[in-house]
Design brief:
alpha/beta, six-stranded mixed β-sheet, 13 helices, 370 residues, five-stranded mixed β-sheet, D-Maltodextrin-Binding Protein, domain 2
Length: 370
């Protein structure tokens, strides 16, 4: 298993470059080199698996009767955006031995926040799998990219903030307002466009969306350039904390029915699933085990992610506790969740009116344990 490396196509980002261990110069060639951090001479330390490992389920009513799977030493390139604390199950799987437990030799390829590049790299075979927002991946998959979702990873992590002094308290009050996002295709923009549409107004004509670098969103609200901001952890958490009460959360994607849905999902290239189902199952199980580790011991998970972040372990742990890392359906229940998102994305005209939610969800989901 190797430490994260940067893909040749990833664009440099001055803020991201500050994150520990993510720059090319800070990359270690193997976990074995990190002896000063307690990873041992050649492999991660032995762990008490009974404390963290759990079967791939998200609800007590769901079961998967699959035997333990091994990747047979298969080399895997895993695409990861090192900026999202909600995907901490990836570095935890690396540093706490879950990839190795399931017989995988995993190289993490860091895309420094470029979520769209992650999906493209998987679909084109440059990497084998990755974790990111389901809402951000649905449109490219509708267009034919060959990637399948094998499990949800967690719920939560998207917030909408307003200035406390503005008096804004509900989403309904944002009609006609200006909202800052990091990208016009971000998961946060898609999510809140859906919410506004359900409230009865057009998010394309009755909301003015403005794109800013993530670390400037809070300043834009303070300067009066925008009325609200929508983003994901860790940035949105840190923006709110640094405001010292001037910015407040009025909505998250754990409100309403979305509290029971996966936010991020594991995508694996379709060709790998077809060619080596055991490897795909091993990769899925490793992420499931790691997600349980994050849910059961967020402090330890935060200490792992802190190696890739400027945020404190205390803050990262608080973020992880606010998410639903116990929620990671690898059963066909994931198809139902995907169908909800697909229907929602049709509401805001991101997906085609002719797209059938159930058929599309069935096409992009793969039960690798069957």
């Amino acid at each position: 298993m190797t430490q994260p490396t940067n893909p040749p196509s990833a664009k440099p980002n001055s803020r991201r470059a500050l994150l520990k261990g993510l720059t090319r110069g800070a990359v270690l060639t193997s976990v074995g080199l990190a002896t000063s951090r307690g990873f041992g001479a050649s492999r991660p330390p032995a762990i008490d698996e009974t404390a963290f490992l759990a079967p791939p389920i998200c609800r007590a009513s769901e079961t998967i009767s699959a035997p333990p799977v091994l990747g047979g030493g298969r080399k895997i390139k895993f695409a990861w955006s090192g900026t999202g604390v909600c995907t901490s199950s990836v570095p935890v799987a690396l540093h706490r031995g879950y990839f190795e437990k399931h017989g995988l030799d995993v190289e993490i390829v860091n895309f420094s926040g470029a979520q769209d590049q992650i999906l493209e790299s998987i679909a084109t075979g440059k990497t084998d799998g990755g974790v990111s927002f389901a809402l951000q991946w649905l449109k490219p998959l509708e267009q034919g990219l060959a990637v399948n979702f094998t499990t949800g990873v967690h719920g939560g992590c998207i917030h909408l903030l307003v200035a406390k002094a503005s008096g804004l308290k509900t989403l309904e009050q944002l009609r006609g307002k200006r909202i800052g996002v990091t990208s016009m295709i971000s998961a946060a923009k898609n999510f809140y466009s859906i919410q506004f549409k359900k409230l009865g107004f057009d998010p394309n004509t009755e909301i003015e969306w403005r794109a800013y670098p993530a670390d400037l969103l809070g300043l834009a609200v303070e300067k009066g350039e925008i009325d609200a901001l929508a983003d994901a952890d860790p940035n949105v958490y840190l923006v709110e904390k640094r405001s010292k009460g001037e910015l407040i959360t009025i909505n998250t994607n754990l409100d309403g029915p979305y509290k029971d849905l996966s936010c991020c999902v594991l995508g694996i290239r379709t060709s790998l699933i077809k060619e080596d189902r055991n490897a795909a199952a091993a990769l899925t199980q490793a992420i499931l085990d790691s997600a349980e580790h994050v849910a059961n011991d967020p402090d330890d998970a935060a200490s792992v992610f802190a190696k890739y972040s400027t945020a404190s372990v205390e803050d990262l742990s608080a973020m992880l506790r606010s998410h639903t890392h116990h929620h990671h359906p690898a059963t066909p229940a994931l198809k139902s969740e995907l169908a909800v998102y697909i229907s929602d994305m049709k509401l805001i005209d991101v997906l085609k009116p002719s797209t059938d939610p159930d058929r599309f969800a069935n096409r992009i989901y793969a039960n690798v344990f069957a």
